[in-house]
Amino acid sequence: MPDTIELLLKRRSTVAANLAQPGPSADQLKTLLRIAARVPDHGKLAPWRFIVFQGDARARFGQILADITKRNTPETTQERVELEAGRFMRAPLVIGVISSSEIHPKIPQWEQVLSAGAVCQNLLVAASAMGYAAQWITEWYAYDDAVCARLKLAEHEKVAGFIYIGSSDEIPEDRRRPNLDELITYWGE
Ligand SMILES: Cc1cc2nc3c(=O)[nH]c(=O)nc-3n(C[C@H](O)[C@H](O)[C@H](O)COP(=O)(O)O)c2cc1C
User: Fold this and answer.
1) Which atom of ligand 1 sits closest to the CA of residue 124?
2) 111 C-beta closer than 6 A to ligand 1
3) Under a CB-based contact definition with an 8 Å cutoff, are residues 52 and 36 in contact?
4) Which atom of ligand 1 is the closest one to the Cα of 16?
5) pLDDT tens, 78-113?
6) N or C: which end of the chain has fewer CB within 10 A?
7) Helix boundaries (H) for the chain
8) Domains delineated in the chain
9) CA distance linking residue 52 with residue 57, whole number of Å
């Protein structure tokens, strides 16, 4: 397992289209989900949950995306319909992270949403530490009401991200990073 600091300094996302088999084993998936749930969580509310897409379920969900696309835009092309049908087939494993924040007397909703973001990042880092490649994606279907209904999201829930996980030989080059000098101030100086 690579040194944590080295991993965090070098980790990159790999585009979902380049994520191949094999994906995490059943035991590795359990470990990933345990790590995902070990995030800071003000009030211990666990304001998130997971939807796992693997095996044939990926194609079945893709068919739902294709059907909703046809319903949303009847003039759509066959090419687009096929793209939607194949979306979840891009990776052997996709974990949907659902933010389930609710109004709480003490814990601001904002903090509950941040915790869901931390879940997504934990998944990316853990997948990377296991030797897999991954990408955090929302695309259009995270925000489509009909898709959210098929995912059985409650009124107060939102998709925080779909974490696509698989294998890749590609070592992505680093991308341009923000200039830290422009982002940091030192209080009192
Ligand atoms: C909440 C969220 C949603 C994202 N959704 C998408 C998306 O729909 N499509 C996409 O290409 N990248 C999306 N990204 C960006 C990628 O996950 C990733 O940040 C980018 O590929 C480079 O990241 P890296 O620094 O980890 O390599 C999203 C990122 C975040 C934080």
Assistant:
1) 26
2) no
3) no
4) 11
5) 999 999 999 999 999 999 999 999 999 999 999 999
6) C
7) 4-10, 26-36, 56-72, 78-86, 109-129, 145-150, 180-183
8) 13-54+88-168 (3.40.109.10)
9) 9
Q: How large is the greatest C-alpha to C-alpha distance in the chain, in angstroms?
A: 60
Backbone phi, then psi, for 51, in 5-degree steps? -125, 120
In whole angstroms, give the CA distance from residue 166 to residue 91: 5
CB distance 138 to ligand 1 below 6 Å: yes
How high is the pLDDT of residue 1? 53
Task: Confirm or reject: Cβ of 137 under 6 Å from ligand 1.
Answer: yes
Indicate whether residue 12 lines ligand 1 (CB < 6 A). Answer: yes
Residue 136 Cα, ligand 1 centroid: separation in angstroms? 5
Residue pair 52/28 in contact by the 8 Å Cβ criterion: no
**Ligand 1 neighbour 113 (Cβ under 6 A):** no
Q: Which among 84, 122, 138 is the best mutation to test ligand 1's pocket, defined by most ligand atoms within 8 Å of the CB?
A: 138
List CB contacts of 29: < 8 A, sequence separation 6 or more: 52, 54, 93
Residue 145's identity, in one-letter code, is D
Residue-wise pLDDT tens digits, 11-53: 999 999 999 999 999 999 999 999 999 999 999 999 999 999 9
Residue 150: closest CA among 140, 161, 141:
141
Q: What is the mean pLDDT of residues 65-85?
A: 97
| Position 46, amino acid | A
